[in-house]
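Protein modeling request. Please complete all fields; requests missing the sequence field cannot be processed.
Requester role: graduate student
Desired output: 3D structure, token encoding
Chains: 1
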Amino acid sequence: MDKVVLITGASRGIGAACALLAAQQGWAVAVNYVTNSQAADDVVRQIRAAGGKAVAVQADVAVEAQALRMFETVDATLGTLTGMVNNAGVVDVAARVDTMSVARLERMWATNITSSFVCAREAIKRMSTRHGGAGGSIVNLSSAAARIGSPGQYVDYAASKAAIDTFTMGLAKEVASEGIRVNAVRPGIIDTDIHASGGQPERAKQMAAQVPLQRAGTALEVAQAVLWLLSDAASYTTGSIVDVTGGR
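Delivered output (248 residues):
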């Protein structure tokens, strides 16, 4: 039976790195994306070219109906889910809290928090021994911003990731006796496209001097931590939050 993992937001950045590494480690991979089908298809092509199994699945995980359809597609194409990576997330342009609109906040919560709850819910229904499953592993993507607060930039993003930390700890205890481990990875300054989406394409380079290791991290370095937590090598690890921050 294949080990099957669903990775949200996997067409680029950390998600794509997780998908490629998961395939190398023997997982069948569902590559979720919202709009960039070309990038998702490219990740799938790379996996298949190396002899792996993968499918691209379009869904905006902030929309419940689309998330449900995504899980049904994975069920039909790859089989029973044993791994879930809640990677999809957004940032916004740098702003102070006293200028933030409710629309901005609602978008942030829907994508960064609610989608992780919904995807974890659906994964648990498939993995939990309580529901007849064989167990599994969930890894949530948090951020060092949850510890730092990101003043003057995006306190809303930081707060959404702090919610993910608490969600991870609580859910881990809730499903520990049902064969499911739940952990999180907190990346620091990582050189990916997400900075450009927040209007700061050079942010990783500009922030490098503030990192004790004196450089930005790579998506692969985050993926290595995610795949360890997904794997049996982390069989006694649950409710943990692993910092991949270069010491920041």
